[in-house]
Amino acid sequence: MTRKVCVVTGTRAEFGLLRWLMSEINDHPKLLLQTAVTGMHLSPEFGSTYKEIEDAGFKINFKVDMLLGSDSVEAVTKSVGIGVMGFADAYSNLSPDLVILLGDRFEIFAAATAAMIGGIPIAHIHGGEASEGAFDEAIRHSITKMSHLHFVAADEYRRRVIQLGETPNRVFQVGGMGVDAMSHIDLMAREDLEASLKLKFLKKNLLITFHPITLEGRDSSKAQMRELLSALADYSDVNLIFTMPNADTAGRELTLMVEKFVDIHSNSKFFPSLGQLRYYSCLSIVDGVIGNSSSGLLEAPSFRVGTVNIGERQKGRLKASSVIDCLPNRKDIKAALNKLYSSKFNLLLKTVCNPYGPTGASKLIADQIAKVSLNDVLKKNFNDIPFKIENTQKSTEN
User: What is the residue-wise DSSP string for 289-348?
Assistant: First the structure.
């Protein structure tokens, strides 16, 4: 019997990671691919990137339009509610046997909530990771508890998912999806990439993505972006390639700041969406990735490209030696950029190893979801790990 598998995607970056898994599912004789699209994919403001899914040859079975025209706390919260209602309709229409979710965004949280209440098994990818500077951290672990199969990128993350009470034989270490995606792509030639982007690469080039810091408030996000742009303003001899922030709280304000910066700095350019092919092709050319995107940790090391990781948004993740952490202020950012261009650091890059494993994650996941039994999978037992609790509470009695 063919198993209907619904893959949910809400962002350009997420689809880039899921694309090859979707292909594996589509080609598998025991699986039937369903695609549910939501979030930034459906927004013209973010490039209407659902078209990239269709251009890749996939049929979109259901669209859940959930983003409001604001990125306030109230709007993002309401978007989650709209998403839950939309996915209730999607699952009712599609009747999937299994839902596949990746990561930690609020759109995916809505999809997980609807599936859990609807009694549909969930397979979660990239659980067990940490990003202590964003509310994504809580969302990711919440989705882990709502899920029934877990596909993680590293042994440390497998241990963490098990620590959350998940049954060990349902937690599979398959490696990072980004590492796997890169193995499937033939990168664009430099000249073709320049023509596509309508820019000329200089001797020095940087790729910049800075997302909102959702646990520190919109004012903090704006202040940190201001410090980053102030630091970058001193690098007039460097090509600055910006990609759009996520649709999180204060995301639109950060986008406006970047657009104003690009307007007055001729060595900079802003793209709502590069798409996976152009993004990876840029990674093969640029000197470094700047900002607080997970891509700088998960994917850039495979290109032996340095990453200047700003602030605490990615705090807690495994990091290669190519990652330079810095505080979100102009002085520290400039010091990190100076290190990025130092001869000593560039020598280190030649031997960098990506901690997110070898290729093959997509096929491993497809093969596993095709053969695993889903009988009684919804009835989860909490897997207790024996440990000793030390009483560190001090008595307040006199």
Answer: EEES-THHHHTGGGGT-EEEEETTTTTTS---TTEEEE-SSHHHHHHHHHHHTSHHHHHH
